[in-house]
Amino acid sequence: MGTFGSLRRRAVATAAAVGALALVVGCGGSDDSATGGGKKDGKVTITMGMYGVMGIKETGLLEQYEKENPNVDIKAEIAGDEQTYYTALQTRLAAGKGLKDIQGIEIGRAKEITETQADKFADFSKVEGTDHFLPWKESQITTKDGKVLGLGTDIGPMAVCYRKDYFEKAGLPTDREEVAKLWAGDWSKYVEVGRTFKKGFKGGDVAYMDAASGLFNAMVYGYPEQYYDENGKLIYNTNPAVKEAWNLAADAAEDGLTAKLRQFQPGWDPGLANGTFATAVCPAWMLSHISEKAGDANKGKWDVAKAPKGANWGGSFLGVVEQSPVKEEAKKLVAWLTAPEQQAHIFKEIGNIPSSRTALDSPEVKDAKSEYFSGAPIGQIFGAAAQEIPDKQVLGRKDGTIKDTFSQGLALIEQGDATRDEAWKTTGERIEKAVG
Hints:
Number of helices: 19
Number of domains: 2
Shape: globular
CATH superfamily of the largest domain: Periplasmic binding protein-like II
CATH topology of the largest domain: D-Maltodextrin-Binding Protein, domain 2
Distance between the termini: 28 Å
Radius of gyration: 21 Å
Order of helices and strands: HEEHEHEHHEHHHEHHHEHEEHHEHHHHH
Helix content: 40-55%
CATH architecture of the largest domain: 3-Layer(aba) Sandwich
Structural class: alpha/beta
Strand content: 5-15%
């Protein structure tokens, strides 16, 4: 999704806010249930709150589970905007009502959940059949005393999605292996290719990349430490990896290589549909969004090439609220939804890379190709990228908030509202205010 993981955001901010608030605030269920779920006349009702394109509802899995378990009725609601969803979730957790039995948790929120909300979520550590996840994935949602607050859905190994037709018009190679060689091993080469693209492109007003923030995120998430150190200390303003990513992203912005369209923000979806940019840094979960929003008219024009360096951007979990009246039934559903077979099914349908070791090794994943993206062997590309993800990833309480704030800061440079130094100063002030 997942997810910053945020897998999809509505094209209009107001609609996003309304949708997410309705998910967690307006649909709290019956008066006698904190989650809307419950048991009645031998029937079990389980409610789910999710965001973006997690693939769980979209690929028919909920209907399959209901068919195999006729006494279970699943009511799932999906918000487009993860940031608003999470704000509302925090409010409902504090109030102890208006929740769903099962709640999606984005990776950027995992540390805050494990450190401040552990008592609000059920423990999965003793649930059978849940020993197939990548070790680093499970560790992200595990408390210091060993409580596992959710099970992983997907992970976010990265590639670069690019328009073959635009590369041809710019005099660049179009074969995905040749394209990957252009920027192999160094994100600064990716930016340099952008300068070549800008000089050579003949055919209208098309930017090289969607936004500087996508490049920034791709670089930062390639390091074990990003915004916090292992002791929970904020290091975003001293970490060389963050400053390096900031400066290269600022270079791209100042050189006019971006379409100034932040991913999942208003304007980005129309940008995909109208073909206003030639490349986007794309975690695996983003492919489904691009194919949906770019539409049939652009099928076969997009392709996928290996990223300069490996990194993990996004990924989600499913947790069960401790006070759910159907807690055990909800845990059973989560275990089934995140089992290797279901993760492989989601990947086959929409491209979300499994967090299950077993699923990653399955032929369904390894041999998968994307018809929309010119037959790209996405199983091989993203499977190899998953192997490059650092085994150790240090998460912090406000990772998601800090990421969003950096994206806003880079937008100031793109829009010409601030120099890179002014934008850095403003970003730091905003982060301090937001995280204390």
